[in-house]
Each structure stands twice: as structure tokens, then as C-alpha cells.
Write a structure and sequence with these properties.
The structure is a single chain. Helix 15 (about 390-395) links the parallel strand 16 and strand 17 (about 405). About 35% of the residues lie in helices and about 15% in strands. InterPro entries: DHS-like_NAD/FAD-binding_dom (IPR029035), PDC/IPDC-like (IPR012110), THDP-binding (IPR029061), Thiamin_PyroP_enz_cen_dom (IPR012000), Thiamin_PyroP_enz_TPP-bd_dom (IPR012001), TPP-bd_CS (IPR000399), TPP_enzyme_TPP-bd (IPR011766), TPP_PDC_IPDC (IPR047214). Its cofactor is thiamine diphosphate; a metal cation.
Length: about 575
């Protein structure tokens, strides 16, 4: 964007040009005095739009949702008070492998050199404290000066793309407006590193393991989504007749209407037919699969000696690692050598049909019927965003239409993620419909971003499951035999009235459903893209839990970990590594 011959640009313009080359088209953030010089440049920069956020926390979550749809995101905050609020979201992006560039407007260089006591600090002159903190939740960091700007920007952005994780760039106010030479070339995304000898060695080892395999299967996590490998995975499955299971992290990569898709695998919590296929595979090819306590680490009966595990930059065959080998290159070799599977798999492995809602019933809405009703609302190409807790486990029961993009963050499990992430996804893909499912606990953390949805004329469908508190904590208490404590309850808001706080009358539709018949009537009027933001509050019994949550709670309790799972069933404590 700013590459060319001769002349000069400011460091801020240089950074914006490099961000544009990386693929950033929108920047989320909150203004502040330390960042205003750089934000002023964003406002006049052709090709990147400023998207103001209601808080730095929300800005980080919006950048995360944006990046999961657009490929990369960016957030701008200011030194100290602003950047710290964003670090929670950056930690989630670090855990979930989401590439975000966090740009922090910092104090002038001389102010920092003189260790001046300034506002938004601890008044001790230590301006490097926040970068030290950022090192824990980003893979590369830089504090720019005019002398190092081009080299450091390119280094950090290359790491962001290569590692598909967040990075941190501090741009002091005087540096943002300092002139530097115009770069002669545009920034280009680095290609994956592949050492041919290691790729050949991997292929030979994989060939030996696959020899004679009659029941191979695929298990996919989130990294193939980030790396754009959906078509390659589908081609292997279709041409070689291999079944595909996903982790919750990997939903959205595979067309769930494809007959090769068998469902979600998460150890002992999986449907029996899914476990039969995955755990019964004589060779299991894992693509970016991440095992942790919530998704079967302690109960997955998987023999590492029968696993081919493709990582972002390495491939592991029966415990032997070959690197550097990109996931795309390793997958391509596997496709070439893989034999066709002649053994079928149980048709029952397909996700079971959910109990349908009774359109005439005046009974309260039950979790077991709620999710079939939500599933019927979804359309091909939707973006589905689900909150941790009730919404996450409910969404796991649904069969998704073709082309659905799924935004969920189970590893970091950041409550309040969904509403700002849905806003970010809507900015990234304004022509697609966003369906957001949150709970009363989640929406109480970040409802403000609904106001930003109105500013940008977004028309999402927002489900708010109101069960009067924190279901996950209630399930944990029940799992260890404790009585429900008062801290699991939260004040009951009038959730259907939230849009009225942020928007003029007539620019939204809000409903409250207490019975199955009421919910059915509301959803009958929701078909395709709506012309207004639609919020549907669904009231359910506080003691009613979605399928999967009670089983999860039995693993998520530290007490039960040690009582029932003194060690993982088969995998190492660190998962596949």
C-alpha cells in the first residue's frame, strides 16, 4: 500500500501499509491520548477503516471474531490502561490460534527514556512492564523507533502470519508521525517452511504406518481452518472414502451434511458410534487437534503409536516428529499415498435427530427441545457464534448446514466473548448472516457491542438463553455433591429491552419466549436474512442443563480429575503436543 520508489512516509503510515499488505481492512479499538496520533492516521488511510469499540475488552474480542472470518485481525489501544483490558482477549487468541495484531499507542520516546512518572502507569517510570506482560500472550513483540520500524514491523507481522497467533507492536506518539524512507517492496505473507528431506522422511514413516490400514479416519481441530485447508481435507475424505470427526474447535472446516462427516469427538463424552470410528481406527490422522481437559484429554482411548499428527509446522508419526514440515505439505503427501477405505462406518455415527419443539405446547422450554428449534433457524453460509457454557454445549448437539462458519472459544472459555465477536464477524462478512447464542451471564459482560451493531446497520439474530445464572458452575457443584451457592445466581435483566437502550425505536425486533409454543411462533417469523437486528430471549429452568454439560462437569472438577482420572487414559498429560 505504501511500497514504491523514492519519497518518505511516516512510521504510522508504514505500519498501516504493512497491515494492509497482511490482509487487515478494519481496525477495532478505543481512542486514547497516547494512541491519537496513530489513530488520526488510520482515519485518513485509504484501505483500512477504523471501527470504534465500546471497550478495549470488546475490541479484542471483536478483532478475534473478525480474524476467524477474514483471516487476520487488528486492535488498537493505548499504553497501560487500554492494552491491559485487551490482553484477556489476546490470551484467548493465543490459546485458540487466532492471528491478531495488537497495536498500542505509547508515550513519546524521550518520556520513556527519562523514566518519567506518567498517567496510565504505576508512576514508577517503568514503561516496559506492559511489553513484558504481552510476551506471555503474544508470539512476537516490538517497540518501534524510526530506525528499526521497517525491520521490526515486518518481523512481527511475519510471525503473526506464520504462527497464526497474536503479536504486539508499540508505536510511541512521536514515532507514529516521524518520517522514514518509503519501502521499495510490499510486505508479503511468508510461505510455510518445508525441509524436503524431512518431508520425505515423514512420508516414508507415514507410509509404513498406513500399510495395511483398513480403518483409517480423520480427526480435525482448529488449525486447518486458520490455514484454509478445508478443501484439501474434504478431497482426501471423498477420494479415499475416509470418515471425518471434528473436535468442537474444528467445527466449520467440514461440511456437516457430507456423508463422510460422523460428528464431534471428545473422548468418553462422544456418542458411542463416533468413539467406535475414532478410537477403532487402525490409523488416526489428526490435523491440528488439541486435547485438553474439556474435550477428552483424560478419557480419549487413543494409542499414540497409531496416530499421525499434523501440526502447523511439523508432522508426527507414532511419536517421531519431522520438522519443519507444513501441515499443507504433509496433508498433500498423505493424500497421495492414502489407500481407499473399504470398510464402512456406522450410520448411527451421524448426529442423532434432536427432539423437536412442540408448537402447541404451553410447557416451559426444555434444553433438550430448544436446540432443535435453533438448528432449524440456521441456513447455509451462516456465521454461528456460541458463548461458553450453556450455548456451547447446546450448539454441540446441532447439525450445521453447509458452509457454516463457527466461532467458539472453548480452550480459553472467555465469558462475554460472543457479542463482540459476533460484531467483529459481521464487519468481516457484511453479506453473511450472523447468528449469536449467548447466555444471561455472557451478555451481562459485554452487551455494549450491540450498540456498535446498530451503528454499522448489522442485522444479527441474537439468542439469549436466560436461566438465571451460571450453568457451568451449577453443574460443577452438582458433580461434587455440593448445594447450589448464591454466587451462581445473577440479577435478572430485561434482556429483550437491551436493544432499546442502544437504538431508535423500530430498528430492531425483540421477543421473549417462555413456552415451546411461544418460541415456535417467534421462530416461524425468522426465515433467511432479517431486515433488522433480532433478539430472542429464551427463558429456561435454572436447573435444566443442555446435553453434554453434566458429563463435562464430571471431568472439569479438579476433585473428580484426581479421584477418577489419576492419569489420562492413553494420551500424555500434555495431549498430542
Amino acid at each position: 500500500m505504501v511500497g514504491g520508489s523514492g519519497g518518505s512516509v511516516t512510521v504510522g503510515e508504514l505500519l498501516l501499509g504493512r497491515l494492509h499488505d497482511l490482509g487487515v481492512r478494519h481496525v477495532f479499538g478505543v481512542p486514547g491520548d497516547y494512541a491519537m496520533d496513530f489513530i488520526d492516521q488510520i482515519m485518513t488511510f485509504d484501505g483500512i477503516d477504523w471501527i470504534g469499540s465500546s471497550s478495549e475488552f470488546n475490541a479484542g474480542c471483536s478483532a478475534d471474531g473478525y480474524a476467524r472470518v477474514a483471516g487476520v485481525g487488528a486492535v488498537v489501544t493505548q499504553f497501560g490502561v487500554g492494552e491491559l483490558s485487551t490482553m484477556n482477549a489476546l490470551a484467548g487468541a493465543m490459546a485458540e490460534s487466532v492471528p491478531i495484531v495488537s497495536v498500542v499507542g505509547g508515550p513519546m520516546l524521550e518520556i520513556m527514556r527519562q523514566r518519567t512518572s506518567i498517567h496510565h502507569s504505576l508512576a514508577d517510570g517503568d514503561s516496559e512492564r506492559w511489553i513484558r506482560m504481552a510476551r506471555e500472550v503474544t508470539v512476537a513483540q516490538a517497540s518501534l523507533t524510526p530506525e528499526c520500524a521497517l525491520q521490526e514491523i515486518d518481523r512481527v507481522l511475519a510471525e503473526c502470519w506464520s504462527q497464526q497467533r497474536p503479536v504486539y507492536i508499540r508505536i510511541p506518539g512521536d514515532v507514529a508521525i516521524a518520517p522514514v524512507s518509503r519501502p521499495s517492496r510490499r510486505f508479503t505473507r511468508p510461505d510455510p517452511v518445508v525441509l524436503p528431506a524431512q518431508l520425505d522422511a515423514f512420508a516414508a514413516a507415514a507410509q509404513r504406518l498406513l500399510a495395511g490400514a483398513e480403518r483409517p479416519a480423520l480427526l480435525v481441530g482448529n488449525l486447518p481452518i486458520r490455514l484454509g485447508l478445508g478443501a484439501a481435507v474434504a478431497a482426501l475424505a471423498n477420494e479415499r472414502n475416509w470418515p471425518i470427526a471434528t473436535q468442537m474447535l474444528g467445527r466449520g472446516l467440514v461440511d456437516e451434511t457430507d456423508p463422510h462427516y460422523i460428528g464431534i469427538y471428545n473422548g468418553a463424552e462422544s456418542p458411542a458410534p463416533v468413539r467406535e470410528v475414532v478410537e477403532g481406527a487402525d490409523v488416526l490422522v489428526c490435523l491440528g487437534a488439541t486435547f485438553f481437559d474439556w474435550n477428552g484429554l483424560f478419557t480419549a482411548e487413543l494409542d499414540p503409536a497409531r496416530i499421525i499428527n499434523l501440526r502447523r509446522d511439523g508432522a508426527v508419526v507414532a511419536g517421531t516428529c519431522f520438522a519443519p514440515v507444513s501441515m499443507a505439505a504433509a496433508l498433500d503427501r498423505l493424500h497421495e499415498m492414502a489407500a481407499s477405505r473399504s470398510v464402512g462406518w456406522p450410520s448411527a455415527a451421524l448426529l442423532h435427530d434432536l427432539p423437536e419443539i412442540d408448537r402447541a405446547s404451553t410447557d416451559p422450554i426444555r434444553q433438550e427441545r430448544l436446540w432443535s428449534a435453533v438448528q432449524d433457524v440456521l441456513r447455509p453460509g451462516d456465521i454461528l457464534v456460541s458463548e461458553v457454557g450453556t450455548a456451547f454445549f447446546g450448539a454441540a448437539t446441532m447439525r450445521l448446514p453447509a458452509g457454516t462458519t463457527v466461532l467458539a472459544a472453548p480452550i480459553w472459555s472467555l465469558a462475554g466473548y460472543t457479542t463482540p465477536a459476533a460484531f467483529g464477524a459481521g464487519i468481516a462478512a457484511p453479506d453473511r448472516r450472523v447468528v449469536s447464542i449467548t447466555g444471561d451471564g455472557g451478555i451481562q459482560i459485554s452487551p455494549q457491542e450491540i450498540s456498535r451493531m446498530f451503528v454499522f446497520d448489522q442485522h444479527p439474530i441474537i439468542f439469549v438463553v436466560n436461566n438465571g445464572g451460571y450453568s457451568s458452575e451449577r453443574a460443577l457443584e452438582k458433580a461434587v455433591g455440593e448445594e447450589t451457592q448464591a454466587y451462581t445466581q445473577i440479577p435478572n435483566w430485561r434482556y429483550s429491552e437491551i436493544p432499546a437502550v442502544f437504538a431508535p425505536e423500530g430498528t430492531f425486533v425483540a421477543h421473549v419466549a417462555r413456552t415451546e409454543a411461544e418460541l415456535a411462533g417467534i421462530l416461524a417469523g425468522v426465515d433467511g436474512r432479517t431486515d433488522r437486528l433480532t433478539l430472542i430471549e429464551v427463558i429456561v429452568d435454572p436447573t435444566d442443563l443442555p446435553p453434554g454439560l453434566p458429563q463435562w462437569s464430571q471431568e472439569a472438577s479438579a476433585f473428580i480429575y484426581h479421584a477418577q482420572f489419576p492419569a489420562p487414559a492413553s494420551l500424555p498429560w500434555g495431549g498430542l503436543g
